[in-house]
Amino acid sequence: MDKQGMRAVAIAAMLWLAIGKAGAQQNIQFTQYIFNSLSVNPGYAGYKEEWFAQMAFRDQWSGIDGAPRTGQFSVDGVLGAGKNTGVGLQVTSDRLGAQSATSAYANYAYRLRLDAYDTKRLSFGIGAGVTQYGLDGEKLLGVNPVDPTVPVGKISNLIPDIRVGVYYYAPKWYLGASVMDLLSGDGSNNIFRWDANSITNLMRKRHMYLIGGALVDFEGGLKLRPSVMVMEDFRGPTNIDLNAMFIFAGKLWLGGGYRMSLNVWDRAYAAGQDLQRSNSFSGIAQVYVTDRLRVGYSYDHILSKLSSVQNGTHEITLGLTFPRRGERLISPRFF
Q1: What CATH number is associated with residue 33?
Q2: pLDDT tens column, 14-42
Q3: Of 181, 174, 168, residue with least CA distance to 234
Q4: Per the domain annotation, does 334 fall within a domain?
Q5: How many separate domains does the chain show?
Q6: 57-100, pLDDT tens digit by residue?
Q7: Residue (of 26, 37, 54, 69) closest to 243 by Cα position
Q8: Where would I find the beta strands (DSSP E) of 236-305?
Q9: Which of 21, 103, 208, 226 has the lowest CB atom count within 10 Å?
């Protein structure tokens, strides 16, 4: 790698370390979670009541060598005639400079039917999986030519995890809560610890998510779908995503979002600091090419000083619905 590339990797690593020490979110944030909330709540599995597969790619801070790149594949659906069981599989690959994380989760949701017309459900979900964390020492530049704090070559470790969630939906609104990384410990600020180039401990912070939204009807088939997501890691700032989408004839979705952080609990990390609360704003679009195929795109523009050295964040999703055998394809699910 040339000097410019190494400098970019070092910048990305320092940014991550600065964010980590400030206690900010470690978990991946997808702007288009509003189209498929399985990534933040296992209770969402089976919500669409049809088998649904989605691929997503996120290019964050485009133009910076070593900036985050994330790919994800998920599939979920319902089992049984009563549609009381939701299941799903999710595989994610994330890269940031010298760091990597590849995870796979199996999700299960028990879906309680709450009315005779089956328009309201309360779902309890659990997900179990593993994440392989890696660190490539060849991409890190130590202060000294031989730096004992920099690993030689690549090191990795496999960490199990459990996540739980509850999800309620009705025709006009939804609400969900979940806790991720239940098996992660909070006793260390270090992601990697190694001795003689072998990892002895690896942990990630627990996260809690609260999601909610509604559907408002207007004349001419126009709909408005406002939503909010609150992300809490119990140490750093509370992150809040505000989104609003206009839906035209159920086929074209256009809208945007705003992401910010708040020091809700007056935590110690903010002492003596004047941190910017505004994080980014985004433009989001989704179109149903056919009744089965949907394509989504979003662009995030960050509001910090980093905006001058990068070209924004691009995210693309592809979703494909597989109707249950012998049943008509359900109209687009709005949540």
Answers
A1: 2.40.160.40
A2: 443 333 333 333 577 899 999 999 999 99
A3: 181
A4: no
A5: 1
A6: 999 888 788 888 999 999 999 999 899 999 999 999 998 888 88
A7: 37
A8: 238-248, 252-262, 278-288, 293-302
A9: 21
